[in-house]
Amino acid sequence: MSNTPPHLGGHMGKTHTDEGTLKVLLKHGYETMIDLGQGPGGQVLLARKLGFKKVRGIDGDANVNPCILHDFTQGPLEKFPWSPDVIWCVEFVEHVE
To answer: Within a 10 A sphere around the Cβ of 58, how many other Cβ atoms?
Structure first.
């Protein structure tokens, strides 16, 4: 049984990925990415597979094993160890009041 709060974990075990956009970003020299609200992490895995040098995911659902566990309803993420070229943020805002 999950201890995930009801406003988190709405991914139903699926990640919608966008390979085309990731390829265009790589073509234009972007190499690092944060997936804000990563869900199961499919976009993180795809970005790594395509050649992004550094990719991390942030999510409030501990069950998806994010690189960084953070629930944005509890406040902002105060510190991040590096500055990414891209912040991927899709289907996230509806989980934050």
So the answer is: 21
pTM: 0.80
Measure Cα distances from 53 to 14, 41, 48, 73, 76 in Å.
24, 16, 7, 30, 26
Per-residue pLDDT of the chain in tens (97 residues, 90 and over written 9): 457 666 666 555 667 789 999 999 999 999 999 998 888 889 999 999 999 999 999 988 887 888 888 887 888 888 777 899 999 988 776 656 6
Q: Whats the size of the chain, residue-wise? A: 97
Cα–Cα dist 86/9, whole Å? 23
Amino acid making up residue 51:
G
Alpha helices in 5-75 (DSSP H): 19-27, 42-50
